[in-house]
Design brief:
- The chain has three helices and no strands.
- α1 packs antiparallel against α3.
């Protein structure tokens, strides 16, 4: 939870700057605009998935792996001491 809170502002700011750079392509007129509309849509979808991974999945996986490692270290130290 702490990792997600600490990383929220920089990750969200970088996503917003990228969205700001690609959003004018959404309103480009003409045939070329219809063709280029797929690029920002793809970028938006990839950024949404990246944001979800960076703020939800990566901290959760790190928490699980960190907990497992600390439990293994405790078991090893109790075996060594006994």
């Amino acid at each position: 939870m702490n990792a997600a809170q600490r990383m929220f502002a920089p990750v969200f700011a970088s996503v917003l700057t990228t969205l700001a750079a690609f959003s004018p392509l959404m309103i480009w007129p003409g045939v070329s605009g219809k063709f280029m509309r797929y690029l920002p849509i793809t970028v938006f979808a990839v950024l949404a998935a990246s944001l979800a991974y960076a703020l939800i999945f990566a901290p959760a996986i790190g928490s699980l792996l960190g907990r497992r490692k600390s439990q293994m270290m405790q078991r090893m130290t109790t075996k060594i001491l006994h």
